[in-house]
Design brief:
Order of helices and strands: HHHH
Shape: elongated
Strand content: under 5%
Helix content: 40-55%
Number of strands: 0
Length: 87
């Protein structure tokens, strides 16, 4: 990801097709001194999500769901990694 973003800054690429959240993280980590890249919602894009799955350990999923419902950890993780609140 860093090399893709670097190409945009060097002018050898006009843009980049990246996961928005990943791009934000890499920008913050490696290119904080640069003007951030801008997401263009008019370009072809898709929304993603984060999933956990298991058929062998259903109680693990139930425990995780209960933890997420009863804890503020979700918001803390979203904030720490700059993940958009709509996810």
């Amino acid at each position: 990801m860093e090399s893709v973003i670097k190409h945009v800054f060097e002018g050898t690429a006009d843009g980049a097709y990246l996961n928005v959240e990943v791009a934000r993280y890499v920008m913050k980590k490696s290119f904080a001194d640069r003007m951030p890249l801008v997401f263009n919602p008019r370009m072809l894009h898709d929304k993603g999500g984060y999933l956990v799955s298991t058929t062998k350990h259903p109680s693990l999923i139930n425990d995780l769901n209960q933890f997420l419902k009863s804890s503020d950890i979700r918001n803390q993780v979203l904030e720490k990694f700059g993940v958009a609140k709509q996810f």
